[in-house]
Amino acid sequence: MQEHIDAILKNTGLEPKLIDEIVTIGRLKKVSAGNVVISPDSPGNEMPIVLSGLLKVMRQDPDGNEVFLYYLEGGETCAMSITCCIEGRKASYKVMAEEDSTLWMIPMTYMDSWIKKYESFRRFVFGAYQTRFDELLMTIDSVVFHKMDERLYRYLLDTKQATGSYEIHKTHEQIANELNTSRVVISRLLKGLEREGKIEQHRNKIEIL
Fold this sequence. Notes:
Blueprint: H1 2-10, H2 16-25, E1 27-31, E2 36-38, E3 46-52, E4 55-60, E5 66-72, H3 79-87, E6 94-97, E7 101-107, H4 111-117, H5 119-145, H6 148-163, E8 167-168, H7 172-178, H8 183-195, E9 199-202, E10 205-208
Antiparallel strand pairs: 1-7, 2-6, 3-7, 4-5, 4-6, 8-10, 9-10
Helix pairs in contact: 1-2, 4-5, 6-8, 7-8
């Protein structure tokens, strides 16, 4: 397992000495698909790095409505969790396992000192911020400027890219919840995409063509 962790962390460009520290003080966490990794208002006391699997980050309003923001893949971390760790505040978002995932959890007490001590960790943190910021801008553009059918198709393509599979195993209800709309709307739009030859719908899955 340590060799696998070392390989993942080396691909992020972190310095060998820092990798040794991360491996020494971190802990392994396995989470099954559909389970929550970070919930709203949970204390920001650990930063997750994805070793394998796929996480999705959701924004939740006070009424419990959710909207999908972005995915986290192998070697990535959540920029919002870094902010919560450094500032010691509770999360205002939710992170769930899209697939069975293995994570390496790092205590928040080391974040500040690593940013000052290691240039590679500063690059890693700022790179995570930039990547997530770009994805959030795409989400805002999608909500403000695009019609729901365009948002849906972009969501399907993002899911395909993140999972590495042309088959999406989600119900219409699940997709509707993540796009903050109704199941009826999603079902109607999926039929439209199917007529356009962009997807095929099968029992319990959607195939991107």
